[in-house]
């Protein structure tokens, strides 16, 4: 049996639209850190928990592991620029962005614009797999805004039009 080549892996998963998230935390000195994440999933409603997948080479991973708290922001249809900034190798991804400290973990940044929903999380455990680490976390607080999500497919961002117009106007 041949092993799947990384390009085939990306082509397979790139063929389906996925929600886009930005994960934020702070480093040991209290500086905000973050990255764009499209590999996350719900685990259980009791207790409320989720997982995110983080590349082991991510500059944010050490901060996630040391702080043990983070915020997962699901991006809205006007969040494409935010996704691109957090996917970049920029040193200060928060330059010019508006954010507030979280309610549960007061120092972890909660983004104010381009966000459909967010969950403040505390890390419970990690699982190493391939070139990534899965971070399993308890969801401590959530906020959901009646907006359209942005989706990513085959290298392009698109707004999802499946929401009822009434929900978006609420």
Q: Care to describe what's here?
A:
The protein is an alpha+beta fold. It has a single domain (6-169), classed as Electron Transport, Fmn-binding Protein, Chain A (Pnp Oxidase, Chain A). It contains 4 helices and 12 strands. The chain has helices spanning 6-14, 61-67, 80-87, 165-169; strands at 18-19, 21-26, 32-37, 40-45, 48-55, 69-75, 99-101, 109-111, 115-129, 132-144, 150-153, 156-159. It has a 7-stranded antiparallel beta sheet, sandwiched between helices. A hairpin with a 7-residue loop joins strand 7 and strand 8 (109-111). The longest helix has 9 residues, at 6-14. The mean pLDDT is 91.
List the helices and strands and how they pair.
Elements: H1 6-14, E1 18-19, E2 21-26, E3 32-37, E4 40-45, E5 48-55, H2 61-67, E6 69-75, H3 80-87, E7 99-101, E8 109-111, E9 115-129, E10 132-144, E11 150-153, E12 156-159, H4 165-169
Antiparallel strand pairs: 1-11, 2-3, 2-6, 4-5, 5-10, 6-9, 7-8, 9-10, 11-12
Describe the structure concisely for a colleague.
The protein has 170 residues and is of the alpha+beta class.
Query: In whole angstroms, how far apart are the ends?
Result: 53 Å
Extended strand count: 12
CATH class: Mainly Beta
* Beta-strand proportion: over 45%
The CATH H-level superfamily is: Electron Transport, Fmn-binding Protein, Chain A
CATH topology: Pnp Oxidase, Chain A
Based on Cα principal axes, name the global outline.
globular
Rounded to an integer in angstroms, the radius of gyration calculated over CA atoms is 16 Å
Number of helices: 4
Strand order of the largest sheet: 3-2-6-9-10-5-4
The arrangement of helices and strands along the chain is HEEEEEHEHEEEEEEH
């Amino acid at each position: 049996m041949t092993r799947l080549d990384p390009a085939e892996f990306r082509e397979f998963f790139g063929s389906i639209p996925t929600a886009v998230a930005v994960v934020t935390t702070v480093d040991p000195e209290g500086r905000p850190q973050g990255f764009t994440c499209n590999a996350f999933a719900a685990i259980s409603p009791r207790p409320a928990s989720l997982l995110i997948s983080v590349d082991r080479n991510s500059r944010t991973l050490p901060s996630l592991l040391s702080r043990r708290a983070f915020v997962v922001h699901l991006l809205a249809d006007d969040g494409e620029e935010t996704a691109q900034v957090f996917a970049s190798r920029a040193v200060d991804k928060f330059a010019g962005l508006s954010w507030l400290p979280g309610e549960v973990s007061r120092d972890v940044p909660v983004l104010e614009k381009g966000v459909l929903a967010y969950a403040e999380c505390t890390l419970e455990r990690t699982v190493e797999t391939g070139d990534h680490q899965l971070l399993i976390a308890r969801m401590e607080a959530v906020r959901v805004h009646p907006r359209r999500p942005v989706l990513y497919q085959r290298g392009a961002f698109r707004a999802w039009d499946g929401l009822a117009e009434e929900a978006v106007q609420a």
